[in-house]
Amino acid sequence: MTQDEMKKNAAWAALEYVPRHTIVGVGTGSTVNHFIDALASIKSEIKGAVSSSVQSTEKMRALGIEVLDLNDVASFSVYVDGADEINAAKQMIKGGGAALTREKIVAAVADKFICIVDSSKQVEILGQFPLPVEVIPMARNYVARELTKLGGRPVWREAVITDNGNIILDVFDLKITDPITLEQQINQITGVVTNGIFASRAANLVLVGSADGTLVLK
Ligand code: 5RP
Q1: Does residue 94's CB lie within 6 angstroms of at least one atom of ligand 1?
Q2: Does residue 7 contact residue 120 with C-beta atoms inside 8 Å?
Q3: What are phi and psi of 35, to 5 degrees?
Q4: Taking 90 as the threshold, does the pLDDT of residue 200 lie above it?
């Protein structure tokens, strides 16, 4: 079974956890693209979706799923998204697709975060995957120097401008043993919009797609 088929297994398994007749929060990425296909199959049974990126919005609209403005939605129960890494405490690194800020905002509003991953994303310690940090463009070099002081090796993802008009620094060589503290420390650097550690708001449920089916971690 390919990695993409495992992602697809996890994504379709998430349908079971989507309460009907409510609004659904939708993440970004190749795993979520499978989830959007799955969501389209029950589109008449949901009130619409809140999106975390232009990419997901376009895909949902193309499939006839109504996309609502988060400012018009006070609450909703479930946010479904992928991750680049996830540990046993359900803390994640996200932002490989540069959508981390909107993902964190939509996740903050949701009652529950359901993370859909293939088994390759499970790790003991976060940090093997370079940590994405969204930065206001004029602060790029200042933020890079501050990230270096924290022990990381920031690399500018040059070809990318985020949906919010900002840039991404990918921070290599971090061994993230205390994700909550590092998430807060990096967010304190002036010029950082947010970073891809999702620890203060970890996932509530993880669906891990593997060759043997989908494992549910509660
Ligand atoms: C995008 C993300 C994605 O959830 C993460 O990169 C995983 O992507 P994929 O499902 O393509 O492996 O955080 O910003």
Answers
A1: yes
A2: no
A3: -65, -40
A4: yes
